[in-house]
Amino acid sequence: MRAAWYDRQGPAREVLQVGELPDPQPGKGEVRVRVSVSGIHVGDLGKRQGWWGSTMPYPRVVPHGDGAGVIDAVGPGIHRSRIGERVWVYLAQSYRPFGTAAEYTVVPARHAVPLPAKVPYEQAAGLGIPGITAHRAIFGDGSVTGQRVVVTGALGAVGRPALAVARRGGATVIATVRTPDQIKPALAAGAHHAVDTAGGNVAARILEHTGGEPLDRVAELAFDANLATNLEISGTAG
Fold it and tell me: pTM for this structure?
């Protein structure tokens, strides 16, 4: 199969190689996915470049944890009815050497999630890590039903799914975006209210939508930059 890989950490132009590798075969409880689109996120870059003190966990790494494609083979214990299924893939290269930057990837069956026909591969390939991050940001402390939730950076890769799952979870969602022209897209994406940060007085403008009542939860994109605002809207400012 055609694949990209690296045998040492460093900048892409110095360590990435592209060529032929043996086709992987699924083991027990695994499926093989013929990859249509490979997704890349900051964690992939960090592992390749040695950020956060990371080292090479395997002698060779085919990068990228996220992707989308079609199951073309299954291992023992997985029903053959899954062959031909459109799926999105997550954590392909987490605790495993070979990710989705290849024609084929092998993952545990639960990491290959059925994908509706109307969802394009390009969209699904970016769902994995951003979607998991968004879900944990919203539900990490339990249910949000009936709560008031702020999602910052609501039109970003993590912000969009955070906004969606918060609304689906029964919260009243207030989105923050950078500019006034992004307010309408944020509302279209599911926010009940939206505030642009370019307009200043962000905390006060958020609280206008709650009648001055504090927020229950904040899914924060830039914790350090927005700490003062978050303390104010959560009613914990000193």
Answer: 0.84
Task: For CA atoms 29, 34, 38, 39, give the dihedral sign.
Answer: negative
35 lies in some domain: yes
- The burial of 66, by beta-carbon neighbours within 10 Å (0-12 exposed, 13-18 middle, 19 or more buried), is given as buried
CATH code for the domain in which residue 65 is found: 3.90.180.10
Tokens of 72: 């073309």
pLDDT tens digits for 101-143? 999 999 999 999 999 999 999 999 999 999 999 999 999 999 9
Q: What is the mean pLDDT of residues 167-187?
A: 97
Confidence band for 223, pLDDT divided at 50, 70 and 90: confident
pLDDT for the residue numbered 224: 83
Of 46, 57, 61, nearest to 5 by C-alpha is 61
Range of the domain at 111: 2-125
Q: What is the mean pLDDT of the chain?
A: 95
